[in-house]
Amino acid sequence: MASSISQSLKATPDDHLHQEEKISKWVILPDNRAKLHWDVFMYGLLLFICTVTPFHIAFTYRSFTWCVLYYTLDLCFVFDILVCFSTAIPETEEKD
Q1: Where are the chain's structural domains?
Q2: Helix (H) or strand (E) holding 61
Q3: Exposure of 80 by Cβ count < 10 A (0-12 exposed, 13-18 middle, 19+ buried)?
Q4: N vs C: which end of the chain shows fewer Cβ within 10 Å?
């Protein structure tokens, strides 16, 4: 108990600032390497959708495999929305 009191007395004003800047575990930083890989994956899915969907519509080919694939892609896009909502936006200093 005495050691915790002595440690709190040794705290500097800068320590208080660093404690306030803690980032939640749910916030994804924009320079996160996993976020970069996720974005590249999503670009690949968009390219696939943009090229395959017109042919799929034109030739009206239906199968259970394509339905499962499209629902899986839809789930990936919904998850991407959640990832985008939890990605931090870096602050910039605006000059007046």
Answers
A1: 23-96
A2: none
A3: middle
A4: C
| CB contact burial 18-57 (16+ within 10 A = b; e otherwise) | eeeeeeeeeebeeeeeebeebeeebeeeeeeeeeeeeeee
Q: How far apart are CA 47 and CA 92, in angstroms?
A: 32
Dihedral sign, Cα of residue 13, residue 90, residue 43, residue 58 = positive
Q: What is the pLDDT of residues 55-87, one digit of tens each?
A: 888 887 778 888 899 999 999 999 999 999 988
Unique residue bearing structure tokens 């306030």: 20
Residues forming a β-bridge with 87:
28
Alpha helices in the chain (DSSP H): 2-9, 13-20, 33-59, 64-85
- The whole-angstrom separation of Cα 34 and Cα 19 is 26
